[in-house]
Design a protein that fits this description.
50% of the residues lie in helices and 11% in strands. The chain contains ten helices and five strands; from the N terminus they run E-H-E-H-H-E-H-H-E-E-H-H-H-H-H. It has helices at residues 13-25, 33-36, 43-53, 63-66, 69-85, 116-127, 133-136, 147-151, 160-174, 179-186; strands spanning 3-7, 29-31, 56-61, 90-94, 110-111. Strands 2-1-3-4-5 form a five-stranded parallel sheet, with helices on both faces. Strand 1 (3-7), helix 1 and strand 2 form a beta-alpha-beta unit. The radius of gyration is 17 Å and the shape is globular.
Length: 187
């Protein structure tokens, strides 16, 4: 199975943890900063080791990660190795609609923005190309990807109506929306 470095913004941590958990369920070895950097470890050295040991870097794409210098440094380190070796090593995963970095624009991404399960299965098909189970994979449904939407409610200037629309869309996608909440909001 593959060693996978998960490059993400701290604002996307719940989503990154969900990807980590699902990768582990399918036998992969994900590297994620809050799990793999211990107190007293040299942060930059640990990240460098994680990227070097990784077969793939999964770059979580969101407005927060695209704006993050650290995320850019992480995936570009593996990107140049990909160019030199002429093999797939950087795997973009779209968590939320955003401006795709120019170097990643020519590449297909796993689209988790509207359906996490479909996007994750697309990612898994690259990591498990010989296994037919990737297309049949059952992916966990949880609400961790709802937290970034709700956290934005604390940001001055955020439109509550837009957050409500996104929350209801999420509830429909995961099938866990309360019918009474949806019917009240749609009236």
């Amino acid at each position: 199975m593959a060693n996978v470095f998960i490059s993400h913004s701290s604002g996307d941590r719940p989503f990154a943890r969900r990807v980590r958990d699902d990768l582990q369920r399918f036998g992969h070895k994900p590297w994620i900063d809050d799990d793999d950097i211990a107190v007293g470890d040299h942060i930059i050295g640990s990240i460098e080791q994680g990227i070097s040991a990784a077969d793939y870097v999964v770059v979580i794409l969101s407005p927060r990660s695209v704006a993050s210098h650290w995320v850019e440094v992480e995936w570009k380190a593996k990107y140049w190795q990909q160019v030199k070796q002429n093999r797939k090593m950087v795997l973009p995963v779209l968590q939320e609609m955003c401006e795709i970095p120019i170097l990643l624009q020519p590449y297909k991404y796993a689209d988790c923005s509207s359906d996490y399960g479909d996007g994750f299965r697309t990612l898994l098909s690259v990591l498990n190309p010989s296994e037919h189970s990737a297309s049949q994979a059952t992916v966990t449904t949880n609400t961790d990807d709802l937290y970034p939407i709700l956290a934005r409610a604390q940001v001055p200037g955020e439109r509550v109506s837009q957050l409500l629309v996104e929350t209801l869309a999420h509830a429909r996608r995961v099938g866990s929306g309360s019918p009474s909440l949806i019917s009240v909001a749609e009236k």
